[in-house]
Amino acid sequence: MIDGVEVLTSEMVRVSADLDELIGAGIIFAVFALLLFYFLVLCIKEKFGWLTLVCIVAVSLFTFASGKMFKMAFNPVYEERYMVKFEENIPTKFLQDYEILENKGNNIYIVREKGNE
């Protein structure tokens, strides 16, 4: 790592939402998308022009949102966190590359790399 910094442990931490929360939200969005699609078909049959356009936009947005929920549920996001101990002061080079998340006391900190958000 960097001089003056001792890595005690490292672990992978899940930073995305839980599976059941994302699946539940994805199902709700998918159901709304199906209901709006049914309403869209009715609007096309009855020739409601402006309402049809609103339904097309709403169906697209709900479908996109449910797809994002299912994608995040089955492809979770992880980040690596490190428990480090500093010999004396925190090195400047370390602060440029890493973000301090928690102070454990006795010069021991939980950190993560910057840019992995």
Explain what the structure shows:
The structure is a single chain. A four-stranded antiparallel β-sheet has the order 1-2-4-3. It has helices spanning 19-46, 49-74, 92-97, and strands at 5-14, 78-86, 98-105, 108-113. Strand 3 and strand 4 (108-113) form a beta hairpin. It has two domains: 1-15 and 77-117, no CATH class; 17-75. It is an alpha+beta fold and 117 residues long.
Feature tags:
alpha+beta; 2 domains; 4-stranded antiparallel beta sheet; 3 helices; 4 strands; 51% helix; 28% strand; rod-shaped
Give the helix/strand layout.
Elements: E1 5-14, H1 19-46, H2 49-74, E2 78-86, H3 92-97, E3 98-105, E4 108-113
Antiparallel strand pairs: 1-2, 2-4, 3-4
Helix pairs in contact: 1-2
Task: Report low-confidence residues grouped into runs of 5 or more.
Answer: none
Widest sheet: strand ordering:
1-2-4-3
The chain-level structural class is: alpha+beta
What's the Cα radius of gyration?
24 Å
What is the distance, rounded to the nearest whole angstrom, between the alpha carbons of the first and last residues? 20 Å
SS summary, helix count: 3
- What is the helical fraction, as a range of percent? 40-55%
Beta-strand content bin: 25-35%
How many E-type strands? 4
Topology as a string of helices (H) and strands (E): EHHEHEE
Number of domains: 2
Based on Cα principal axes, name the global outline: rod-shaped
The biggest sheet amounts to: 4 strands, antiparallel
Mean pLDDT: 85
